[in-house]
# Entry
Amino acid sequence: MSEVVTGEAVVVEVRVAQLPSRAVAYIIDWVLQWAVLIVAYILLSNASIVTDTALARGLVILFTVLVIVGYPVIFETVSRGRSLGKLALGLRVVGDDGGPERFRQALFRGLAGFVEFWIFFGAPALITSLVNEKGKRLGDIFAGTMVIGERAPRQAPPPAMPPQLAAWASSLELSQLSDDLANTARQYLSRWHQLAPVTRHEMGVRIAEQVSARVAPPPPPGVPPHAYLAAVLAERRRREEIRLAQARRPAMPYGTAPQNYGAAPAYGTAPANGGAPQHGGAPQWQPRPAPEARPAGSEPAGPTPGGFLPPV
# Structure
């Protein structure tokens, strides 16, 4: 994975294409280019019998340039960074900002590729890709591009919540559980069936102890480590899904009041059904009885020196 800063100053993680996959993609393109060149040479050699020799040689040079340089430039420009080989391997050329490849960038890559692969047999590209942290060859450095993989690796399904631990997991405090430790527990659960019994138990106990030191309350007695970790991760994922669902909820336009079905009546008003609970809620507010009338001649006390009226 590599971080890319877009034009809007947003950091995005992308999968940089590995050297073996890029090599296989180039071999596919190289075989196609040679097949087209052989067919073109055969046709032009037959055409040279009835045409001028200089014209035939000019056509050979033209077709050679079109196949060697024009093929990657045209395909990567039209398909937004994918040649036939990259399409077969799930690769794409993008800019350093994560945007689609432009014609200028494809032209730089095509011209540099002619020097790297057809003149020096790929040696400069191999050395530069091994040295560069993003696997760039000279053409990518000149053009400001990089090759990424679009096909994400197949991931194991998320752990399911053990039914007997669902009630306990709903009361967990997960704020201290870091992402790195959660990823470690997730990787352990994804490989749980592939481990030997002794390794499975020792590794599970070690990871469960690290998680229990940051999660409260402790698990019920007798819970195996893999079930405990599955319950913690499932509850963490459930809360994250609830948080994302609330964040995606459309905002209410300014000036509109929310519709509270079954809510209590406004302050100072009595419920229409005489104070009975609505929709299973708590009993509604009941109005206070009117205060008793004061005897004749009694006047309310005046304000205190501080200006506050005394209680009635």
Q: What stands out?
A: The radius of gyration is 36 Å.
